[in-house]
């Protein structure tokens, strides 16, 4: 026997063993009617039938008791469920030692320490035998071993620490200590404890957890009861898979098909059940309701004698009942469905309705359904004509029409509390331990084939190449859960992709191949620009835009028709926006999808994308940047006549004051230079004062000093005149600013082009 054959036989035995163990709750008296599978690892199961007794017995696996207790619902057509009872598992609460035996957890020291007071017999090295009650287990580090005195100790471990545990036993009023590293065997003298240990080991080995517990539901009266029982327990999630068939020209009407792969590991056959599949993200968790839990309580015996209750006046609470929400309506979206079939809870919610009447109304007669399920589900096609046979012989085998006609999808979709549930119109049979694929979607959509470039390219070796992608809008009523999508074009398979969940009426882009003939490159530049947004009494508010300019270059083959390459450009930062949106730009999560069209008969195209982020700044009218901002606002041509007439004198005065400031600053520099030269000339005269032969030079320097002083005085007089003129203009400007409040509507999207300001 080959190794491959042996491995296949072994896999078959493992699969059969797992299927036999993974039994879901069973109710022998009731038939399974409805199964709803979720994407979060749970399933809703609904059973219907008659019980001719006052007790309904449900068998459930130990590990599913808690899920059953959380969700068990029993509806009696003409009675009530009184109570639910089940036996407790002694191994879960009678001794704390068993809690340490979970797979992958626990140690000998932990178990011995948890059974304090239990009598055991220990056999240690050297023939030492100790019988006594466990007192405690202590952890020791680097403690000398008295039994090894005079002997050579083994070398210490790499950590340099010797770790061990000391077990203390009480024997006839005397404590004896033995190290766990010296123990060879331990005997338990408590038979109940040994039995519980065996049970826990069975659970750890994977046997005890599959043991079934019988849950009893007591009903009112020992008579016939028409029951509907529902519960939610763990179940394998259903898995979607899709196919998209593109039209011949790559754009237009395409075919979208969807299937669900269902796994039945419940331990029983699903025979002609009403099946529903739910998508979304409902919250589900484990919660232990079976194991008894004790809560610590303080002993208040002494305090009770020193307290006295005060008399309190009763209060009346007004309760306002809210109107019930309307039930969601299910609108069929594909296939043909029988009236009322697939309507969730339709039979359960009718008060006191007989079960036969409900079944008849929903078309759920089990016997008829089982006979119907024994025959093929799909309708028999009409006999083909000779013309259709000839056409099929010429057409490819995987064209859109042929695939659409070969798939029978009968389902309806509806929204319930944020979830999308798909109800199959026909009942389904899924034998135990098998997987079944059922058709959900078989509809036409608008789709196209194009190119998408992501930063980094299409992978190793394709850093500059885009993906070939499928783009379509989910015009169906179904939510497309994440799953593989096979793409067909021209009658053959061209690639496959994977996407996140796609909601109804949502567009999606799915890469399915690499386009190696197209190359994309980019370059970046950085800068900033300031835009005036408001003027209020001499205070200017401006937005400073830090800009990032990305230029995308696309090179590819020159084709007869134009084609588009989509560029996925991530945002440069959380507050960045586009200065000007290129035509056809789409918004993504923290990114933009920017189209770059390559013209016909041309192999090159480029697109410049400018991102910017604003930062608000306040400036005084006297700030050196203010005149440029005011001139920019007037040059933009966005002010009306009234606002311009009010702002123009302010701009003129500010410009004139700026000129005065510039002239004064120049005069001051000249004055300081003249005063410096005059001071140097004065020092030279003082040096020549005692030199009798330097009379001519002293006369020349004295004349120069007079000229420098005169020029400096003239500059000072001019500065005084200009400052006086400036003061008058400043007063006039401040008077004008008292009555002005202009606002512009500049936004990050408009950038440096403010819209029409508002005057207050």
Structure, described:
This protein is α+β, with helices and mostly antiparallel strands and 760 residues long. Among the domains are: 239-282 and 332-378 and 397-514, no CATH class; 519-614, Immunoglobulin-like (Sandwich); 641-743. Helices cover 25% and strands 35% of the residues. The strands form five sheets. Strands 13, 14, 20, 21, 22, 23, 24, 27, 29 and 30 form a ten-stranded mixed sheet that branches. Strands 1, 2, 4, 12, 15, 16, 17, 18 and 19 form a nine-stranded mixed sheet that branches. Strand 17 (411-416) and strand 18 (419-424) form a beta hairpin. Helix 11 packs antiparallel against helix 12.
Radius of gyration: 44 Å
In percent terms, what proportion of residues is strand?
35-45%
Q: What's the overall average pLDDT, rounded? A: 75
The coarse overall form would be extended
Number of DSSP E strands:
33
Number of helices: 13
Give the % helix.
Answer: 10-25%
Major β-sheet annotation: 10 strands, mixed
> What kind of oligomer do you see?
single chain
